[in-house]
């Protein structure tokens, strides 16, 4: 059967459970509450054998099979209606090999599960800014880490992947075994199978310098171009995020953030060994000096810390939320454009410009379909689900128009209707050839990220 042929829909969806059952609710639990999760059946797979059973059942039923773990980006690939949803949440531990500096991570684990296991050995991974994000999805979507300007995209740290294919085979793919599938899985946009484990490289990291400097919003348009000028030649040991924040007056937020609109600069500088700490502190001082000369911050928490503190710095929400967002890889912003951009989204919780360059732009020897970002900056805007956020996101995108590259970072797209283009045409065609070879009937076709160049 080809992708274009309509399958015969069967009625037996065992082991998937129907709507209204506790098992269905558990399997469909999602961090992104704004995206409807309404499959025909849902199942939490606790083992690789469970995943194989789920794939076989979906194949028999004639229904497409969709995947989720934490559900942060569950809206990216469109409605789940009439599909079967499997949530791989394997009852297996994270295994760290401190001598080889690797970790084997089963499907369903979050960075909050992995980091306690790695940091006890003085090692860490190229994790993201949130501990609640699923490791496998993050890696397959490229992975934008605060260590990335030194080490590149997290997808490049993947040594091997264990995958359940559409025909039920369980295969381990790597640079040496089925290299074309290994290439496509890393950033190809889904639709290849169910990844049930990843082996990743770890990096030595005893300490970091991290924190947040905060200024009044009135100073933002003066400070942002200075940060951008510094970012052009910043050493690769540091990765930062400049954000206009408008956070609600929540009790756990410090008074300089709660209920206020501010400009915040956070991130991390690596210090793999104790002797690296003085240089890391100097890098922070060199970043902040020209900014504090223009305007005194209302708070500055940059200080040395243990690596496990990093996911707390960016203030990603710890609980599920209903939000709308937009994102784009962008060129540098003209100095005269900053005020217009920063003022365009007054109702957004965050309007972020993430510093790229350095290792993010390097081409690795054995990268995947997505192995680098050539753009110097990444934009991300997010706010509560609603009309005000929709208007603000459109206004910010319009203000950013001169800087848009036409490409996005997959991990930051969580809405099917948003622009999302990852590859050039040649790479996209190569990915599709691999996808058709491993899933000729289109069992996983619903999990393929669409290419939308614009709204």
Automatic annotation (TrEMBL):
List required co-factors: FAD
Q: Which InterPro entries match?
A: FAD-bd_PCMH, FAD-bd_PCMH-like_sf, FAD-bd_PCMH_sub1, FAD-bd_PCMH_sub2, FAD-linked_Oxidoreductase, Oxid_FAD_bind_N
Keywords, comma-separated and alphabetical: FAD, Flavoprotein, Oxidoreductase
* Signal peptide residue numbers: none
- The answer to whether the entry has keyword Oxidoreductase is yes
Q: Report the family membership.
A: Belongs to the oxygen-dependent FAD-linked oxidoreductase family.
| UniProt protein name | FAD-binding protein
> What organism does this protein naturally occur in?
Paractinoplanes globisporus
Mind giving the lineage of the organism this protein is from? Answer: Bacteria, Bacillati, Actinomycetota, Actinomycetes, Micromonosporales
